[in-house]
Write a structure and sequence with these properties.
The structure is a single chain. The protein has eleven helices and two strands. It is an all-alpha fold. It has one domain: MetI-like (MetI-like fold, Orthogonal Bundle), CATH 1.10.3720. It has a two-stranded antiparallel ribbon with strand order 1-2. Helix 5 packs across helix 6 and helix 8 packs antiparallel against helix 11. The chain is globular.
Length: 295
């Protein structure tokens, strides 16, 4: 019996310790995740509980009338503003990100990045007031669709530019080096390889910017005004309705009908944001698969 080898139990101490640390870290991470999503779940749940029992599809198909009616004009107005922000801010932001990541150098690059960061930190209500002074008053546009979407575009361009720049810089240098070795021109490398590989990050930045613009109220109060008529495509002198105005205004009214419209508008905004997030996930998954295949 004395010849039977013994097992040193000290060898198992590090493994047990690692397992214990892994469990602790996993538990802490799970708790942090629950703390992160619990406010969102609570807010969404409270809105749905108050909106669904009294919701009617006539809210979607009729315009607002005083403190009642529907939200059709607000839905169309929000959609137009969001689409306009996507075109204006998306174009300028992506081109700015490409310039900063591929072409800007030295003091020029530092100055542009600093200005973009300062613009991103300015409160939205201040940007809205500047938009009012510049577009509504100075250029005599009046409360209009154009003034609203341009003001929101100025507010979210820094987010799109930053995410585009970061996404382009994260593309492995081996991709471009291989293309250069094959004799590709720089513009073709940028268009066919670099941008396509960075598409998941660029799309994510775009969706985040659109989600921010959908939920803004203060800049639109200064620039877009409000109207219960259906919006039209006139760029100036055309006040437009939007859902955040209904949430902010109708909630404080003494009538039950107005308060219910406020909850309905909040629920529709949540559905629009969820639709944006779902579409971004689909686009990102497809572009990422395409980027990996190209890589």
């Amino acid at each position: 019996m004395s010849n039977i080898p013994t097992i040193d139990t000290n060898l198992f101490v590090p493994r047990k310790r690692r397992r214990y640390i892994n469990r602790v870290v996993f538990t802490l991470g799970t708790l942090a995740l629950l703390l992160l999503i619990s406010p969102s779940v609570w807010i969404i749940g409270q809105v749905l509980v108050r909106a669904i029992p009294h919701f009617s599809f006539s809210v979607i198909t009729t315009n607002g009338v005083g403190l009642g009616g529907g939200l059709k004009n607000d839905i169309v107005g929000t959609t137009l503003i969001t689409a306009g922000v996507g075109v204006v801010a998306g174009t300028i932001g992506i081109l700015t990100g490409i310039y900063l990541s591929q072409f800007a150098t030295g003091q020029v690059a530092g100055l542009l990045r600093g200005a973009s960061e300062v613009l991103a930190g300015i409160p939205s209500i201040v940007i809205g007031y500047v938009g009012y002074i510049a577009l509504v008053v100075h250029f005599h546009w009046g409360f209009s669709l154009g003034a609203g979407l341009i003001t929101l575009s100025v507010m979210v361009i820094p987010y799109i530019a930053k995410t585009t720049e970061v996404s382009l810089r994260q593309v492995p240098s081996s991709y471009t080096e291989g293309a250069e070795a094959l004799g590709f021109k720089p513009t073709r490398i940028l268009r066919l390889i670099t941008i396509k590989s960075a598409l998941p990050g660029i799309v994510t930045g775009m969706i985040v910017a659109l989600a921010i613009s959908v939920g803004e109220t203060a800049p639109l109060l200064y620039t877009a005004g409000y109207s219960q008529n259906m919006p039209h495509l006139a760029f100036t002198h055309s006040p437009v309705g939007y859902l955040t105005y209904a949430v902010w205004t109708f909630y404080n009214q003494p009538t039950v009908t107005a308060q219910r419209l406020s909850y309905d508008a909040a629920m529709l905004l949540i559905f629009m944001l969820l639709a944006l997030i779902a579409s971004s996930r689909i686009i990102v998954s497809r572009t990422q698969r395409h980027a990996e295949t190209k890589g």
